[in-house]
Amino acid sequence: MSATTTARTARRRTLRIAAAALTxxxxxxxxxxxxxxxxxxxxxxxxDTGVAAAExxxxxxxAGAQGSDGQAGPGAEVDAKxxxxxxxxxxxxxxxxxxxxxATGGGSGSGVQxxxxxxxxxxxxxxxxxxxxxxxxxxxxxxxTNKGSSTxxxxxxPGVDLKSENGSQSWSLRRSSAKHSSIxxxxxxxxxxxxxxxxxxxxxxxPWMPASAVVTPPNETTALTLKWPWGPLVDQTGATxxxxxxxxxG
Length: 250
Prior knowledge:
The protein has 250 residues and is of the alpha+beta class. The protein contains three helices and 13 strands, in the order H-H-H-E-E-E-E-E-E-E-E-E-E-E-E-E.
């Protein structure tokens, strides 16, 4: 082979190699461009974004948690539900101690007990204006004293039964129509109630002489017995509206 032919062959081979290299480069360039265009054409769908957010533990940016239309993606919805549950549990835990405390506080305020017969002392008020006048209807007062060591409440109508000598006759006094309320008695404190009396005159044809007054405090079943300090009463034991009746405490 001549030198001219050899040089021509080598030049052709070089051109073919160069052309092949250019073709490969062009193919790579086109592939890269095609891949970029495909990525650009694909929308940022909420499904892909949600998967990414779930895989990243929801730690992505707010843009990553949002769909292309600005609505929260599934990942953001999952995070929101989890946060809501956590907040609800925290709120319930925060409210529970307060509710328990309120219930405990309400239970602890039991209030003052009522006065019982065993903790009371009874006596007639005497002297001065406390002495009934036989010239007409009058009143007498019975004093109730808290002899116990605890505060108590008392209110309403006591029961009063007048007993004759040897207890052979009994007169249960009717109640007045007066309104009543409760009174709190500290240890040693006293309150009273009055009894309206129709005292008998000396010339009374049918006097009724009590020997004792049996006083039952409101809401109690046991009584305190007092010696009757005054004179006889007009006998109205059978009257519908007697002039002798009991008034409420206070």
